[in-house]
Every structure is written in structure tokens, then in C-alpha cells.
Amino acid sequence: MAITKRDNSDIKIASQDSGASKPAKDVHDGVTLLDSGVNFVGEQVSYPKGKARIKSVLATMAPGQKTGWHKHGVPTYGYILEGQITVDYGDGGKTTYRAGEGVLEAMDYWHEGINDGDVPARVVVVFMGAEGAENVIYKPDGPSGEV
Predict the structure, then answer these.
(1) Of 89, 81, 30, nearest to 56 (Cα)?
(2) 2-9 LR contacts (CB < 8 Å, sep 24+)
(3) pTM value?
(4) In the prediction, which pLDDT does 79 show?
(5) Torsion angle, CA of 122/107/76/9, rounded to 10 degrees?
(6) How far apart are CA 5 and CA 25, in angstroms?
(7) Alpha-carbon torsion, ordered 4, 47, 110, 35, to 10 deg
(8) How is 25-77 classified by DSSP, letter by letter?
């Protein structure tokens, strides 16, 4: 197993002994934040082909700030740490995500988020992509729903 550092060099990690027993308290049995393969607009998540490339960011949106109309070329997960964001999916509807909620982003639906709260919204965003795949694709003009 290898982990890529910020400078894109790899760190080799020894594999855990496959004969090891599960500990009495498994850290992987934590609180479930999201367990789904379908997003708000009903799309089934599918992964892009190619060599995996995972990117995570901590995004901050000021009150009133918008994301711009966009879609995702890769499965994208977000976890709202603070604040709230209302996402308009065009003809797919609108929903508000609040602190403590996880979300699978729409991939083939144009959507726009707005921080319609009174405090900055902080979101951990994880793009589960592949080399050469676009994480975010911006639309040149207004909503039209499904592509």
C-alpha cells in the first residue's frame, strides 16, 4: 500500500497481518454519516474508469456566497461541518444541507449551492475520481436540470 504525500511522492506502508483478529472496539464501527449509492436527484453513483485519484478539500462559503451552476464528473461526497447550504437542482428540486449532514453530490444534474445562513458554511468535500477526470464542470449559463 502507498500513500501519496503533498509533494506527490509515495510512502510505502506495510500491510497488516491478514491473520490478525478484529479488536473488541473497532474504530471502523463509528457513527455512520452516510450510507448510500444514490444521490438526492436519484442518480446511482458510478465511478470513472482509470487510475483512482482522490482529492479532499475543506471548502468555506461566506453567507450569501454561491457555488455557481456546475455538475461533477466524478462521485463527490460532502460533509457539512458548520452552517448550511441550500442546493438548487433545477427541475430536480431544492434541498438544504445542515451541519452534521453528509451528502452525495449530483453528477449529471446541473446544480447550484448557496449559503443562505448567517454564518460561514464549512464543508469537507471528497472527489472520488480518476486521473484525467474533471471533478467540477461549470455551466456557462442558468439551470436546465438533467443533461
Answers:
(1) 81
(2) none
(3) 0.78
(4) 97
(5) -120
(6) 29
(7) -90
(8) S-GGGS--S---SB-TT-PBP-PPSSSEEEEEEEEEE-TT-B--SEE-SS-EE
| Cα–Cα distances in angstroms (integers) from residue 110 to residues 87, 90, 120, 138, in the given order | 10, 7, 23, 9
Calculate the alpha carbon distances from 45 to 27, 72, 80, 107, 128 in Å: 26, 11, 20, 8, 11
Query: What's CA 45's distance to the chain center, in Å?
Result: 12
Q: What is the pLDDT of residue 8?
A: 57
For 22, the grid coordinates are: 478484529
What is the per-residue pLDDT for 146? 44
The whole-number pLDDT of residue 144 equals 52
Q: Enter the C-alpha cell of residue 27.
A: 474504530
**pLDDT of 60:** 98
Q: Enumerate residue ranges in the chain where pLDDT < 70.
A: 1-19, 142-147
